[in-house]
Specification:
By secondary structure, this protein is an alpha+beta fold. The protein has five helices and eleven strands. The chain has a single domain, classed as Nucleoside Triphosphate Pyrophosphohydrolase, CATH 3.90.79. β1 and β2 form a beta hairpin.
Length: about 200
């Protein structure tokens, strides 16, 4: 009998074992969703990150991020938001070209200007790994697939502590070919890598 693949293990884990944490909303909450998208090229698994276009109206302007955005009234649910925003930002049709693995825990940004947001991450695996990205330049300056094994190698050294917003602050920083992932995305990525690390060895 062959060993289960990483995707099979993750699907089972996030369906049966993982208990995601949901943050309660109120009338001031801005609900949003992001997509953690995996693919396999040859024998290597990769995760998709984008660099957001610099815009005055974007609280995360210029940051590295997962594809995603704010929930609209016409979205059926937060999962629909993740799929819609991903298609708008990078041209990936997740309903057509991926399998849904599961939901990850909600996150609230520390940034005082953005802590009305609640971010709900959803995990997908591309079944069509050669599909081309079509960036919406108004929102996405760049997109990069980063090997999971490189991120995992940097997991222990990613912790950063300091002062931010006049308070003690800690996050996780990952660097790859000139791209720097930190803040909210760094924290979500760190937590996700910790959760899946046991299945990558």
């Amino acid at each position: 009998m062959s060993r289960p693949t990483l995707v099979e293990n993750l699907t089972y884990h996030f369906t049966n074992n993982y208990k995601f944490t949901s943050i309660n909303t109120d009338k001031n909450t801005v609900e949003s969703s992001v997509s953690i998208i995996l693919r396999k090229i040859d024998l290597n698994y990769e995760v998709l990150l984008i660099k957001r276009t610099v815009r005055k109206t974007d609280k995360f302007s210029g940051h590295m991020a997962f594809p995603g955005g704010v929930k609209e009234k016409f979205d059926k649910n937060s999962l629909s938001t993740a799929r819609r925003e991903t298609k708008e930002e990078v041209g990936l049709d997740l309903e057509k070209d991926s399998v849904y693995i599961g939901r990850f825990s909600d996150y609230r940004p520390v940034n005082p200007e953005a802590n009305r947001f609640i971010v709900s991450p959803f995990i997908f695996y591309l079944t069509n790994s050669k599909v081309h990205l079509k960036k919406c330049l108004e929102e996405v300056d760049d997109a990069v697939w980063i090997p999971l094994d490189i991120l995992l190698l940097n997991l222990e050294n990613s912790n950063r502590k300091g002062l931010r917003y006049d308070k003690p602050y800690s996050d996780n920083v990952f660097e790859y070919k000139g791209y720097k992932i930190w803040g909210m995305t760094g924290k979500i990525l760190y937590a996700f890598l910790l959760e899946i690390e046991r299945y990558t060895t």
